[in-house]
Fold this protein.
Amino acid sequence: MDSPHCLHARKAVKPGKPASTDPILSLVHAMSGKSGVDRLLVGGLLLGLWWWAAAVVGSYWISSPLETVQRLWALVATGGLLRHTGYTLAAAALGFTLGGVPGVWLPMALRKWPFLQEVLDPFLTAGYGLPKLALAPLFILWFGIGMASKVVLAASVVFFIVFFSTQAGVRQADQRLVRMARVLGARESQVARKVVWPAVVPYVFAGFRIATPYAIGGVIISELVSSNRGLGYLVQYGAMSYSTPDIFATVAAITVLIGVATWLVGRLEQRLLRWRPETTGLRSGGVAP
């Protein structure tokens, strides 16, 4: 039975499209069409609602956009935002690597032992379903309030997402090509590298795209529980000092960080997977042939 992230991975696999390498030009193209105008309208509407809510409820409860920008600029000017962002980003990158590499390797290795994969599948599904917020205090108890506990929590989140995404790709590999390669005398390593892996790579990047915000979020959750550095610490500090602008400014920084990180993963995917045919896509029944 497919896991929840198998379905997410299938939805996230996109057809290969030629794209401009200039990010500014890409942004102009994205915002020049009807969908770009619609995005601007929705963004303006949300900004207006935010401003209205701050005026009605009061800035003590909801910081206005102007107050948020002013506080964000103050954090940038003092260097505090950059320092705390760097700490969170470093922990997220380490956790992403430590969770993503085995998340890709294990499904490829288990492909040779279907029985073992069937035995482990319910345990891996249960591990994916564990509430990671509940694990944060345990990791802090084991590894302390330093970066190690944040890295482990991020890795535990990323591993399961990437694992199930890669597993979906392994299951979607064309078995006719696998059998044909074996008939032609290809070794198992050659089959994995030249037949299975090209089919799996789009699913790997789909898992990476899904896991990127979760890696950053996992670190921030751990920082909220106990830390003296990081963006989660800034949110906690703002809450403890009853400073709504601090909280809103940090949340805005987190939103931008996650958006940029996810965009970079998508750009990397476009560059590395240009060989994908444009007919690669999804139909209601799965991956198109």
